[in-house]
Amino acid sequence: MKVRENFWETIRYGKPDALINEWEAFSFISDPVTAYMSVAERGKTKKNPWGVTVYWGEDEPGSMPLINEETKVCKDICKWKEYVKVPDIRKVPMDWNRAWEDTRRIREEGKLTMAMMASGLFEQCHALMGFEDVFIAMMEEPEAMHELLDCIMDFKLTWCHMLVENCKPDAVLFHDDWGSKKSLFVSRDTWIEFFKERYRKIYGYLKENGVLVVHHADCYCETIAEDMAEIGIDVWQGVTPENNIPKMQEHLKGKMAFMGGLDAAVIDVPDFNEDIVRREVRRACEEYVPQGGFIPCLTYGGDDGSIYPAVDKIVQDEIAKWSQTYFHI
């Protein structure tokens, strides 16, 4: 089968004839909204259209919000309307021609087109005010917090509408990390109260329009895995081995697939060891592939590969070798 067909067989817990090797089933389109929203440059401090100050250090793998009392956008959740200026992306001139060209080329290659939508509802909140203020607002000013989240949800829905109207990607990769390596940042009840139904609206719109939902969360989310499937997530990308992946595969068979499983903290390190990298890839494949619905890859949320480039080459090579043996290619 071609990689596109193999991907569908995999996530449907069907009968693929080879492993999907990390991101090989997808290619990203040049989405002009992403280009407009992404201002980060290595070694520089810049403000994005939300007014969030982002910093990308020379020796760091990516940019992060730089939040202190001076740079914080939302200084008082009760006055969020005074502080938060939502980018009006409908009024920004955008050229979708390249996205269309990407779409045609990628589909001719037999792959699925994917759009990136970074900074989900939770991540956008803490970019505007910081982690501590988000958690305090949930407890002390839930009404104002719900209003802000509705505002961010509407922005994301507008972005989804623009994608569907202009190029209709096969999949959208949505980023929102909801936990640490060991637990959710909040209780399941709190996550349900503030996030579940809003994501159901966003993902419901995408699925109504035939768009696959791939949600990146490289953290512990096992507590809400069933909720994730219920709101329309087709593939949980970034699932870490701290989650009980076989248990979730058994429980959610045919409802949600899993992409990740490799322990980056063990293999994507400055002094990486090739034998350890290959052993970790084999461990993940042996533990998760037989149950179905699994794509081995580094847990990071995109096809940029590993922090240390040589690592990802080894990962991909070992996945290919394991696949050849397992599927008798």
Count of helical regions:
13
Q: Helices and strands: which structural class?
A: alpha/beta
H-E order: HEHEEEHHEHHHEHEHEHEHHEH
Radius of gyration: 20 Å
Give the overall form.
globular
**How much strand content do the residues show?**
5-15%
Mean pLDDT: 95
Main sheet strand line-up:
1-5-6-7-8-9-10
The main sheet comes to: 7 strands, parallel
Which bin fits the share of residues in helices?
40-55%
Strand element count: 10
**Unreliable sequence segments:** none
Describe the structure.
The strands form two sheets. Strands 1-5-6-7-8-9-10 form a seven-stranded parallel sheet, sandwiched between helices. A three-stranded antiparallel sheet has the order 2-3-4, with no helix packed on it. Helix content is 44%, strand content 12%. The longest helix has 25 residues. It has 329 residues and is an alpha/beta fold. Strand 8, helix 10 and strand 9 form a beta-alpha-beta unit. It is built from 13 helices and ten strands.
Could you give the topology of this structure?
Blueprint: H1 3-11, E1 26-28, H2 32-37, E2 45-47, E3 53-55, E4 64-65, H3 80-83, H4 97-108, E5 112-117, H5 121-129, H6 131-140, H7 142-166, E6 171-175, H8 188-208, E7 212-216, H9 225-230, E8 235-239, H10 245-251, E9 257-261, H11 264-267, H12 274-288, E10 294-297, H13 309-326
Parallel strand pairs: 1-5, 5-6, 6-7, 7-8, 8-9, 9-10
Antiparallel strand pairs: 2-3, 3-4
Offer a few descriptive terms.
329 residues, alpha/beta, seven-stranded parallel sheet, three-stranded antiparallel sheet, globular
